[in-house]
Amino acid sequence: VALTVETGRAPDLSAFLKRDGGETRLDLLVPGARCAACLGKIERGLTALPGVSTARLNLTSHKLAVTFKPGAADAGQVLKTLDRLGYQAQPYDPGRAKVEHDREGRRLVLAMAVAGFGVMNTMMFSVPLWAGIFGQELGPASRTLMMWLSGAVATPCALYAGMPFFQSAWRSLRVGRANMDVPISLGVLLALGISISETLLHGRDAYFDAAVSLLFLLLIGRWLDHQLRARARSAAEDLVALQSAPATVIDAEGRTVSVPVGEVKPGMVVLLRPGERVPVDAEVESGLSELDNSVLTGESRPVAVRPGQVVRAGALNIGGALRLRALVAAEDSALAGIARLVEAGAQSRSRYVRLADKAAALYVPVVHTLAALTFAGGWALGLDPRQALIRAVAVLIITCPCALGLAVPAVQITASARLFRRGVLVKSGAALERLAEVDHVVFDKTGVLTEGRPSLLDGDTAALRLAAPLARASSHPLARALAREAGDGPVAEDARETPGEGVEAVIEGRVARLGRAGFVGAKAMPRGETEIWFGFDGGEAWRFAFSDRLRPDAAQTLRALEARGLTVEIVSGDLDAPVAEAARSLGVAAWRAGVWPAEKAEAVAGLKAQGRKVLMVGDGLNDTAALAGAHCAMAPGAALDAAQNAADLVFSGEGLMAVVDAYDVARSARTHALENFGLSALYNVIAAPAAMLGLINPFVAAIAMSGSSLVVTLNALRTGVRARSEKEMGVKERAAAR
Amino acid sequence: MNILVFLAPFSLGLGLIGLGFFWWSLRADQYDDPVGDAERILLDDPEDRPAT
Description:
Strand content of chain B: under 5%
Structural class of chain A: alpha+beta
Number of helices of chain A: 26
Shape of chain A: elongated
Radius of gyration of chain B: 20 Å
Largest interface: A-B, 24 and 22 residues
Distance between the termini of chain A: 24 Å
Radius of gyration of chain A: 32 Å
Oligomer: heterodimer
Strand order of the largest sheet of chain A: 15-27-26-25-16-23-24
Structural class of chain B: mainly alpha
Strand content of chain A: 15-25%
Helix content of chain A: 40-55%
Shape of chain B: elongated
Largest sheet of chain A: 7 strands, mixed
Helix content of chain B: 55-70%
Distance between the termini of chain B: 64 Å
């Protein structure tokens, strides 16, 4: 997003309030609340307010629920109190975010608990059985009793805990494919079946404990994978909920009503205050203002609008208030076209085959052939069919992809936790796999390579001091940039702001103006820069020029990417001159300017057709289609919500080096995942022949299985360790900021 | 060995009670805010103080 505007206006929160009995409930997201002190401060500070009955902060999700008596307190007071305590809060609509209870996660946890219970209690009876194998005293009657008892505990537990795998295996078999869950289900069910029949026939080999512990270990992997996705999903839902800022509609009687954007119909009159985004494509009825179209086109310069002009949904109002007449409904706005492109991109991405599924495609036929050969060969070589079957099942159990099931999730959860600590949010494990394959990086300019807000290029220091009080009184982004440069100080009294023109006030007894050249009374020639003028009535005028500064570590990031053998390109919707300038100072040869949103997506699709794997880094609405279409996509935390939703990874903070960090960790994650596959393969190469020769008994199976899982998990913990350490990164970034 | 008739069901029963408690705690949203709950026990609740 090119320009950020902070307005002092109190937001209209009526759309976020919920009636709950005789009380009103307000849900807020407080991202800054991170410690116990915050918890006490916020809850105590709010409950001290008259009329507020409860305030409860969830420190895990940073959500705050406040209930108060209508009339005795109001939402504005709550926000003001939070602001005074030093916390920024945003209204949040849990209904819209569909934060339904995470059913799948709970089922997995419960299955894991049941499997855990099963493992522990089956072991109670398995240990005597193992002792029996090693010639300790255990009569046939006691052995059968132990087998019956362990079967009675393990069978129901395994059937319940295995459900997620059985269902997934069945779904995959129905469409004629075999995923990793097919050998798992088959192994577990056969192990249970053969153990029951052995118990009935007073045999020796019962694999009840192996069946449940297998499920327990696999469920850990499954749950880790689920956690990774759930965390990203809740982040995406937070964004959707925050996006639900209502539109202000003026009804037939002239009253202002705030309604959800989805309910704005063609012909309705919408009031657009400064700092708000245009909700739907509309025509300006009255008012003068400037719009920031950067999220639509990437162009950073504000555009003046007057009555009769058409404005596009998503544009940000940075001037005065406007009355708009809606032309279309929200779903038909310019935004919707981009949304369709995004959907198409997301679909093509869902066809990506994950590493674990590739491994399963190789693994499943091999293992099943081996088991079948064991049975047929054993029978042919003179074993009785029952013994041959037991050996075949032992092959299936011992090669059951326990380590394989943990190999990838354990690595990815470690990688994403490391990245999370560096401010990078990974949305899915598949995203890390795709990021590791990237060979070409496409950057958007505004807001990605640059800071996305104007900063003062040059200007007279004495004039800056004089203009500062006026600048502080205005909410225009250029004035704010000027005020930021000047630092704290007095604010001009009685300042009058003319929308789209400038601000004026009396300073030191003279009328001073800050704004467009014409407004200040200066003769200006267009110089291709964003500018603002300051002058006294009838006196000299000074010019302040602004530009969107490059991020301090942009050049360093591009060099680091090139050093890793990636090619870099800039594709921007901005004008030729600023893009060329940025490309020159960053030393990038390949750049394109003036590109429309659909063309960006085409550019990415074109690279894809050439066989390149593209990483797209973008932040605007104009980037979303390209983000969704790219092999992998990243967006900065300051990006528009839609862009963050279309991206696979979101990085926060000022530094662009996060892109390099994410790439390094993703590569490291792939290396370790492949190592894990290697370790599991090695284990299988040793264990499978042993099982075929009948050297495996239930005790050896239990040791081998948990041993291989442990090795794989320990290896996963090494992921990303050798990427830049956090301390080193902090030093570099501080140096770059200076 | 007769003691098994008593001990085996008894230990299984204990395990089941534990499992039941876990199921209850999951249903009762006990794991909604692990970070906050860990910090909350360290806070002095003003309401717990004796009235002065």
